Amino acid sequence: MKSFLDLARGDRNLLAAAVQALAVPSATFFDEARAAEPTQTEHDRLAATLPALSTIEVVRTANDASIGDGLVIAAWNAERLKYHAPSVELIRKSDADILLLTEADLGTARAGNRHTVADLARDLGMSYAFGVEFVELGLGDSREREWHKGETNAAGFHGNALLSRLPLLDAALIRLDDGGTWWTDAKDGQGRIGGRMAIAAKIETAFGPILAVSVHLESKTDIADRARQTKRLIAAVEKLADGLPVVLGGDFNTNILPEGSREPEAHEPLFGLLAEAGYHWDAANDFALTQRTRPDGTPQPPFARLDWLFTRSLSASDAMTVAAVDADGAAISDHELIKAHFSAL
Questions:
Q1: In this structure, are residues 312 and 280 in contact, taking their beta carbons and an 8 Å threshold?
Q2: 310 contacts 62 by C-beta, under 8 angstroms
Q3: Is the pLDDT of residue 197 over 80?
Q4: Any idea what DSSP says for residue 95?
Q5: Dist CA 211 CA 205 (whole Å)
Q6: Using CA atoms, how far apart are residues 2 and 63, in angstroms rounded to an integer?
Q7: Which of 45, 77, 130, 290 is the 20 to 30 A CA-CA neighbour of 298?
Q8: Can you say whether the dihedral through the CA atoms of 325, 283, 205, 246 is positive or negative?
Q9: What contacts 229, CB < 8 A, 6 or more positions away?
């Protein structure tokens, strides 16, 4: 079977060059970017100068974790992954063998300028693959800019990751769009370089290798664009999986779904596309809402189920949506964690 690096050659939507640590942009890059025109051409020029947008940070932890006839896979949009200790506790209690993580920061003032994924993986004893979705040119949204006024980002990386307590064999980054949406349409002062993407990894399990994929679709979009991104996702996963069982999970931003609907395919074309490609979701999800209000009172309902698990050639059971709160019941993200048990067919 070919390596992901071999499979990625000649495919602009697949990247598989792994590094131990991502290269941090220079101070002059940020000065140049802030002075640049908000055009697609300028975005692409600036993005091409950032090695961190074309590499993946992969760190493997030696462990002898073993599982029986199945495993637990969880997906969580951690909204910057700012709250380290309660996040460790949430994931530990979830019993996740594999965590599909979205919206994690490296070197941002809003997350204490930490490497949030490396910190999380260290304390959970898990290997990880982390990729940069956006390089933040500022401090974040309007709330974050006020809270962290006068502070500076050490790197400004915002991205997605996959963590595993089972052997991580190979990893790749899948580009889901052409990038630039948060540059040419940088509303509310939140300028970013980059685009939406997924992190895929081949994981060794007791019933053989599987492909697990952490997915984050665009939020400033519509059902047609989510379908386009899903088509890219399916094509790239098909190449990487090469017949292996697959679990996809993450934030699909399905914000138009009616509360309680158990027929998402009637509202979101992306479900039909995934069904045509052989994926199932009924047994891997409990269909509960996955948004929640943060301690500052935002966002407010109505909420939807934005986060999903999809599987192909694996059996799913025991699906659950888990409250993403600390010991005092305060939200540590505006998304709940979702999980399910997966086993061989």
A1: yes
A2: no
A3: yes
A4: T
A5: 10
A6: 25
A7: 130
A8: negative
A9: 176, 177, 196, 217, 218, 221, 270
Question: Quick one: tokens of 116?
Answer: 């949030």
Here the tokens at position 253 are 């931003």
State the pLDDT at residue 188.
Answer: 63
What would the two tokens of residue 311 be?
């599987």
pLDDT band at 203 (very low <50, low <70, confident <90, very high): very high
State how far the Cα of 91 lies from the Cα of 81, in Å rounded to an integer: 12
Distance CA 197, CA 10 (A): 18
State both tokens at 117: 């994924």
Quick check: 31 pLDDT over 80? Answer: yes
pTM flag (> 0.85): yes
The contacts of residue 255 (CB under 8 Å, 6+ apart) are: 219, 304, 306
Nearest Cα residue to 196 out of 212, 211, 181: 181
**CA atoms of 31 and 271, how far apart (whole Å):** 42
Q: CB of 290 within 8 A of CB of 335?
A: yes
* pLDDT of 33 over the 80 cut: yes
Cα separation of 287 and 306, whole Å?
A: 10
CB within 8 Å of 4: residues ≥ 6 apart: 14, 16, 170, 171, 172, 200, 202, 240
- Give the pairing type, strands 168-175 and 197-205: antiparallel
Tokens matching residue 325: 């709160």
Per-residue pLDDT at 189? 64
Both structure tokens of 244: 């292996």
> What's 88's DSSP letter?
H
Quote the percentage of the chain above a pLDDT of 90.
91
Q: pLDDT tens for residues 233-292?
A: 999 999 999 999 999 999 999 999 998 889 999 999 999 999 999 999 999 999 999 999
Residue 214 and residue 100 in contact, taking contact as beta carbons nearer than 8 Å:
yes
